[in-house]
Sequence to fold (149 residues):
Amino acid sequence: MAVELCPLGAWYAVGAEQERVFVTKVFARFARRERLADDCLREAVFRAECGSVDADLGGGDIKQRVARAGRGRSGGYRTVIAFRSGQRSVFLYGFAKSERDNIDDKELADLKKLAKLVLGNTDDQLATALREEELKELPGAHQSRDHDR
Fold:
């Protein structure tokens, strides 16, 4: 087991089991178009694991800021993540702060339904979603990134 220092200064233990991080097909397109690196997405989950959540939207959804090159997090992107601490995170939706202020109530309701679905998936259901390319798993720090290429 390794001990890491969270950006907020809190210590936490990293065991063999690391949280799994996924992106939906729609979010993967957004991330590719905006050239968001997997490391930036993992950093957003890492901050949430350390207790630094930008907004708790309820229903398992959180909103996290992701930095844009040259602008930092405040002028960057907003992401909606289905988040279950220590288990799994699924990036559901993203937008540039410069393109829109926020999501509307209907979008939020739909994202809450989606969060309930993806956070409730069994391992077999996750495997099926990965096989059907509805979800993509981000490589962890312990995994090789070569399998994505």
Summary: The radius of gyration is 15 Å. The chain has four helices and eight strands. The chain has one domain: 20-138.
